[in-house]
Design a protein that fits this description.
By secondary structure, the protein is α+β, with helices and mostly antiparallel strands. It is built from 12 helices and 14 strands. The protein has a 5-stranded antiparallel β-sheet with strand order 4-5-10-6-7. Strands 11-12-13-14 form a 4-stranded antiparallel β-sheet. Bound molecules: flavin-adenine dinucleotide.
Length: 291
């Protein structure tokens, strides 16, 4: 089936207006941002919203800026702007690394960070990136705003903490010195979703890992937070042996399924090997900051 079911369409002129429409129209209404995930799902009739609220005119949701010791990214910020941002490149090179391997320029010119996170597809690269860097999501509804950690944002496959009558408005990243980050991905062809991907962020002080974030794409029903490996790494001096042990944990703690992209064992192997590589490069970045 290549034609979506019939739907009503409206173009929001303000964030408040979009939220009021979501509240008024109820659960059959959906936000549309870049449309690169939602429209294919509608064409396949996997999603059948009765109302679409288009937020593409909301320039106030498109920005990457520094504020109150955080990098703040508006939900409508496109992939291409994440790729080009000097501020992000300086603090979190993991964004540019991931964006280079997300889809192609056509998708990157249109798709948004908000759409990527709200799609809650376990294969999305940005979900792992945002988890690794310990981003927080700002969710707004008529009752006001709440801020949710990435660990609590994805609550199931294609399900997020964004409730009825709410939308994601902003993603916030901590600006902590001494950090490095990296994204490693294996895909079948350039621009494909990952067979497996690993994002790592490492903070080092005095030669010791003070904090670390590790997350995997495409090897579980939702983004996999490799918390056991994070606990192992925290408080230790970085070493190849430690990275290998963290990779083994990533391999054991993910839960891939066999599909056209590969069998379970291969995906587990990739999760481990990519975690080791991402950690190695993130640590090298953190050590350069420390020097
Ligand atoms: C050919 C192709 C290849 C791709 N390859 C990759 C890849 O390699 N890696 C990767 O990570 N991604 C990939 N993608 C996905 C791409 O990154 C999409 O842009 C992204 O998944 C969705 O962003 P969007 O703005 O298009 O969202 P939309 O399709 O507009 O929306 C997606 C979902 O999010 C909801 N939503 C959107 N914005 C908000 C908001 N502010 N608040 C609440 N809900 C919201 C919508 O209601 C919908 O449910 C690919 C897509 C295509 C078409």
């Amino acid at each position: 089936m290549q034609t979506p079911a019939p739907f009503e369409y409206e173009r929001a002129t303000s964030v408040e207006g979009a939220i009021a429409s979501l509240e008024r129209l109820g659960p059959e209404a959906r936000i549309i941002a870049g449309g690169h995930s939602l429209l294919p799902m509608m064409k396949l009739r996997l999603a059948n919203p009765e109302h679409l609220i288009d937020i593409n005119d909301l320039d106030e949701l498109s920005y990457i800026r520094e504020e109150d010791g955080e990098i703040r990214i508006g939900a409508l910020t496109r992939h291409v702007h994440l790729l080009q941002s000097e501020l992000l490149r300086r603090w979190y090179p993991v964004f540019a690394e991931a964006e280079t391997v997300i889809a192609d320029p056509v998708v990157r010119n249109r798709g948004t960070i908000g759409g990527s996170l709200c799609q809650a597809d376990a294969a999305e690269d940005l979900s792992a990136v945002c988890s690794a860097v310990k981003a927080r999501a700002v969710i707004r509804g008529t009752a006001g705003e709440r801020v949710v950690s990435m660990g609590k944002f994805h609550v199931g496959p294609y399900q997020t903490a964004v409730g009825a009558g709410e939308m994601l408005t902003e993603v916030r990243l901590p600006m902590r010195p001494g950090g490095g980050s990296a994204h490693e991905k294996v895909e079948r062809r350039a621009g494909d979703f990952a067979i497996a991907a690993s994002s790592a962020a490492v903070w080092i002080d005095g030669g010791v890992i003070t904090d670390v974030g590790l997350a995997l794409s495409a090897v579980g029903p939702i983004t996999v937070h490799v918390t056991r490996a994070e606990e192992l790494l925290r408080g230790k001096a970085p070493s190849e042996e430690l990275f290998a042990a963290a990779g083994e944990i990533a391999s054991a703690d993910c839960s891939p399924t066999a599909d056209g992209r590969g069998p379970v064992d291969y995906k587990r192997h990739l999760a481990g090997a990519l975690t080791k590589r991402a950690l190695r490069r993130a640590t090298a970045g953190a050590l350069r900051q420390e020097a």
